[in-house]
Amino acid sequence: MLKKTLSALTWLCILITAFVSHPAWPQKPPKSKTPAQLKAAACCAEAEELRAQIANLSSLLSDLSAKQERDWVSVVMQVMELEGSTKRMESRLTDAESKYSELNNQIDIMQLQAAQTVTQTSADAIYDCSSLYQKNYRISGVYKLPPDDFLGSPELEVFCDMETTGGGWTIIQRRKSGLVSFFRDWKQYKQGFGSTRGDFWLGNEHIHRLSRRPTRLRVEMEDWEGTVRHAEYSRFALGNELNSYRLFLGNYSGNAGNDALLYHNNTAFSTKDKDNDNCLDKCAQLRKGGYWYNCCTDSNLNGVYYRLGEHTKHLDGITWYGWHGSSYSLRRVEMKIRPEDFQP
Ligand SMILES: *[C@@H]1O[C@H](CO)[C@@H](O)[C@H](O)[C@H]1NC(C)=O
Ligand SMILES: *[C@@H]1O[C@H](CO)[C@@H](O)[C@H](O)[C@H]1NC(C)=O
Ligand SMILES: *[C@@H]1O[C@H](CO)[C@@H](O)[C@H](O)[C@H]1NC(C)=O
Ligand SMILES: [Ca+2]
């Protein structure tokens, strides 16, 4: 646009200059001050003025173009500066946002932990730790799942593992301190016992309810050398109480040696006061726990907690035959579940 105007003006100047320097009309050489000569003088004065005007104009033009260029550069600089500051602002905003969401996370957890009575629709119902994960709770720890009339579930305190292989795990069992006895009766295994932060059994009723959706089970174990292994099973489910909380498992995967739980597949739960095993013996009494005893065990994750030194001498310890055999009691065990279709 500017260039076009400039070139048009330039052409105009050239034309005018040409016209002034070589006037088209016939001019007689000046000899004397005849009227014709006077006319010629007037014409020359006019021409001079024209020339000056043109000179003025062209100097004006060059001034103008120089100024325009400066303006243009300054506009470009301003735009660039603006872009730079926008970028800086954006990065500051992102920073602030991530800090805010982190803070929000923590506040939400505190709010959640301070028992809530929020009414919920089924769409945003909190079933378990995986629902909490999907709602952006990403810190492992104790949570209170609110009661839900729609699901018919009571308020439940759970421990969520939000880190292992993407998180979203609800812990259903833990052995690590040895301070809680697992030699308990049917009712206690049904309702759950122990402390969510320490050793506990979440409760067969809760586990049954939480495993109504296709669910995955993960068993994590640690021996007394500090080695950690895990076993995972697809299609984990517990029947209801009428089915004696029967265990169902899919395929095994993991690095805990040979599988030691499939032997207990499709087996009812037994406690010291309820013998549902497949043996003449009373496995729960022999192995001193509550478990899906077959005849009797390939693993005994709810057995007696034996400490270092005592840990290799007993058949009723916390065993996993496929790794350390039938008389090695593990130092730490955690059983956790999450929906099969969980997407971290
Ligand atoms: C040329 O420009 C100057 C300053 O802008 C002005 O004073 C002068 O009269 C101009 N001359 C002509 C011939 O227009
Ligand atoms: C278990 O593995 C078998 C053989 O690889 C396969 O056919 C079956 O579908 C698997 N079952 C589950 C529940 O993944
Ligand atoms: C576990 O038992 C159920 C019921 O008998 C069976 O359908 C399933 O295939 C078994 N799981 C495995 C991995 O064999
Ligand atoms: Ca029996």
Task: Give structural notes.
Keywords: Coiled coil, Disulfide bond, Glycoprotein, Secreted, Signal. The protein is an alpha+beta fold. It has a domain at 129-339: Gamma Fibrinogen, chain A, domain 1 (Gamma Fibrinogen, Chain A, domain 1, Alpha-Beta Complex). 37% of the residues lie in helices and 16% in strands. The protein is built from 7 helices and 10 strands. The protein has helices at 2-21, 35-113, 129-134, 186-191, 204-210, 283-287, 321-324, and strands at 141-145, 156-161, 169-175, 193-194, 200-201, 215-222, 228-238, 247-248, 252-254, 332-339. Strands 1, 2, 3, 4, 5, 6, 7, 8, 9 and 10 form a 10-stranded antiparallel β-sheet that branches. A hairpin with an 8-residue loop joins strand 7 (228-238) and strand 8 (247-248). Helix 1 (2-21) runs antiparallel to helix 2 (35-113). The radius of gyration is 44 Å and the shape is rod-shaped. The model is unreliable at 23-32 and 115-122 (pLDDT under 50). Bound molecules: 2-acetamido-2-deoxy-beta-D-glucopyranose (3 copies) and calcium ion. Calcium ion is lined by residues 275, 277, 279, 281-282.
